[in-house]
């Protein structure tokens, strides 16, 4: 259950959350009248702010009208404010790409206007957007930019906002002591200034940090304090939705499930009424986690499906890539702007030195010429930059494909050839009438092993190549554990029987969330590896159990185990092929494939091993 931020920086042109005395109906009536553009801009702006509380889509419609009128009337400040308000409204809809576009557009204009107060707000909002998308490094970068400006402004409230954001960033990085330090600094300032809504914000964030520290009583006390403070306040729907989500997730952590369900229902109601998609999505995720902890897997799966359905309709990996590209474009444009300013200063100084030596006409001709050549150079630079971006992208794609090719040829040339040579030798010897029957049986078994190893290797090779080239997405569904283990075990029985290895099962759970194909390939590789490195008449255990925060599917053997150096190679994905206890060959691809595939279902591989004492390989799936 992740942290949802309270965001109070969106109201640039309005004091706090207060609205005009006019009702929404009267404002809508006023908007239909033939008003001057400047007055109509103000009316549209007030309507947009009212809709921000409960209908982000409607708010966007009116802020777009404000933006259009601001451009028409050359009102740069109103244009920047409309971009900022659009950024917040799109954020409420979880449309992060458009949110970032508008925040960056606002920041550019504030920089031009030298409006540092509003620029610091823009940087904070961009940082919050990256925070919401789990890009803590980028969020910290923009928080730092805002902090530098705020310290120069000597603005306590804005400084408290920065401390608040730093606290949230430390919380997400699990540096809880630092988080409490910054959040308490912010709280002290808000109390001194008597800023009610900011106090509500900081109390909520403090409560969430206490929750993450498992200090649930202190967390719930903070949330109860908030509820008392807002008892008679008319708060926007999005803030109420966030507040009740935080309360619900804390009750859930404390295993007070009836109170949690009631708070989740309240949050969902406010989320739907206010069209706050990202909070609704968080509610579904939290409810799925809660029902998993309650072992109610039907409800868990139901809310998990709702979460992914809403998430897929709002945001994809392509959107994240576009966010990165938008930020890169903004940074590049800032650098180009700084370069252009520097070049302009150089031209100005040169013109001043020459003004006493040349006549006015010559100066005009020179400036005209410089302007012409500068325009040509700038066009060429833009074209070269576009070509450079294209070349870099193509180069990265070629490097990826070349890496896949090298890996494939390495495996084919070294490890696919040996089993084929074994098969060829057996076929040549099988027709030899002088060869004893015992030798023929020995060679037949060796050939059978070679064919089985080759088949497993080709399965791994094809799965790995398909993953690298197509980059397919996993399909997360509830998986029947008995069926998964049974299918995997049946495919390895022949290999186990040759070494008289016994396979035991201890499955304490019935289903796990994941992708069947990925889990099947991973478990098969772990099981065949365990057989490969087990002694004759050894034992192997397949276990499935639930821990407080994860589901663990493990394969334990009594084999040769691994040294610390071998474990280090495995952790750094530099492991090479090793022969089994019966001389079995391998490719070194199996465990590498398992680690790569598990990342696609948000799982990980954990290894415990000691030389001569066997190994335990565990697939850990977050609960």
What does the model show?
With 623 residues, the protein is α+β, with helices and mostly antiparallel strands. The protein has 22 helices and 7 strands. Helix 3 runs antiparallel to helix 4 and helix 8 runs antiparallel to helix 9. The longest helix has 71 residues. The N terminus is likely disordered.
- Silhouette: globular
Radius of gyration: 32 Å
CATH homology superfamily of the domain at 1-154 = Tetratricopeptide repeat domain
Across the major sheet, the strand order is 2-4-5-7-6
Q: Into which percent range does the helicity of residues fall? A: over 70%
CATH topology descriptor of the domain at 1-154: Serine Threonine Protein Phosphatase 5, Tetratricopeptide repeat
User: What is the CATH domain class of the domain at 1-154?
Assistant: Mainly Alpha
SSE pattern: HHHHHHHHHHHHHHHHHHEHEEHEEHHEE
Strand content: 5-15%
Main sheet record: 5 strands, mixed
Structural class: alpha+beta
Secondary-structure arrangement, i.e. CATH architecture of the domain at 1-154? Alpha Horseshoe
Model regions low in confidence, pLDDT < 50 over at least 5 residues: 1-22
Number of helices: 22
Distance between the termini: 11 Å
**Count the strands?**
7
Mean pLDDT: 81
């Amino acid at each position: 259950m992740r942290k949802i931020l309270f965001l109070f920086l969106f109201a640039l042109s309005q004091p706090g959350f207060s609205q005009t005395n006019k009702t929404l109906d009267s404002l809508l009536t006023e908007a239909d009248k033939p008003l001057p553009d400047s007055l109509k801009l103000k009316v549209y702006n007030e309507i947009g702010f009212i809709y921000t509380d409960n209908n982000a889509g409607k708010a966007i419609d009116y802020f777009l009208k404000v933006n259009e009128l601001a451009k028409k009337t050359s009102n740069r400040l109103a244009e920047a404010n409309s971009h900022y308000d659009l950024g917040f409204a799109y954020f409420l809809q979880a449309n992060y790409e458009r949110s970032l576009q508008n925040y960056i557009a606002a920041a550019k204009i504030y920089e031009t206007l030298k409006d540092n107060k509003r620029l610091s707000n823009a940087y904070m909002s961009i940082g919050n957007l990256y925070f919401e998308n789990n890009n803590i490094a980028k969020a910290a970068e923009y928080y730092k930019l805002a902090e530098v400006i705020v310290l120069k402004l000597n603005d306590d409230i804005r400084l408290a906002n920065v401390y608040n954001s730093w606290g949230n960033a430390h919380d997400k990085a699990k540096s809880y002591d630092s988080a409490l330090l910054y959040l308490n600094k912010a709280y002290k300032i808000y109390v001194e200034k008597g800023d009610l809504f900011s106090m509500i914000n900081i109390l909520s964030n403090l409560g969430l940090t206490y929750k993450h520290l498992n200090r649930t009583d202190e967390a719930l006390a903070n949330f109860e304090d908030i509820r008392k403070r807002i008892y008679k306040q008319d708060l926007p729907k999005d803030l109420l939705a966030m507040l009740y989500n935080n309360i619900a997730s804390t009750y859930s952590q404390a295993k007070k499930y009836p109170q949690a369900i009631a708070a989740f229902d309240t949050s969902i109601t406010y989320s739907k009424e206010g069209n706050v998609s990202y909070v609704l999505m968080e509610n579904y995720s939290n409810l799925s986690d809660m029902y998993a902890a309650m072992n109610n897997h039907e409800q868990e799966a139901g809310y998990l499906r709702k979460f992914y359905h809403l998430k897929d309709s709002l945001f994809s990996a392509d959107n994240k890539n576009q966010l990165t590209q938008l930020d890169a474009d903004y940074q590049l444009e800032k650098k180009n702007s700084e370069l252009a300013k520097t070049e302009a200063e150089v031209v100005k100084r040169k013109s001043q030195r020459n003004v006493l030596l040349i006549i006015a006409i010559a100066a005009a001709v020179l400036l005209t010429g410089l302007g012409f050549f500068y325009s040509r150079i700038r066009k060429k630079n833009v074209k070269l930059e576009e070509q450079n971006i294209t070349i870099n992208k193509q180069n990265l794609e070629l490097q990826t494909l070349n890496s896949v090719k090298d890996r494939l040829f390495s495996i084919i040339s070294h490890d696919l050839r040996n089993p084929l040579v074994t098969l060829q030798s057996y076929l040549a010897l099988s027709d030899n009438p002088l060869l004893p029957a015992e030798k023929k049986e020995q060679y037949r078994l060796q050939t059978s092993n070679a064919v089985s190893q080759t088949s497993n290797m080709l399965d791994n090779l094809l799965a790995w190549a398909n993953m690298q080239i197509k980059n397919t997405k996993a399909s997360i569904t509830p998986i029947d554990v008995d069926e998964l283990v049974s299918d995997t075990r049946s495919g390895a029985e022949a290999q186990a029987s040759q070494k008289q290895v016994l396979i035991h099962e201890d499955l304490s759970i019935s289903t796990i969330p994941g992708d069947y194909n990925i889990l099947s390939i991973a478990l098969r590789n772990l099981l065949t590896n365990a057989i490969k490195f087990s002694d004759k008449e050894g034992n192997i255990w397949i276990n499935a159990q639930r821990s407080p925060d994860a589901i663990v599917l493990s394969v334990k053997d009594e084999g040769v185990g691994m040294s610390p150096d071998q474990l280090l190679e495995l952790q750094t994905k530099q492991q090479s092929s090793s022969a089994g206890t019966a001389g079995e060959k391998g490719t070194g691809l199996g465990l590498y494939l398992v680690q790569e595939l598990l990342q696609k279902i948000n799982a990980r591989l954990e290894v415990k091993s000691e030389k001569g004492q066997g190994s335990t390989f565990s697939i850990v799936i977050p609960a």
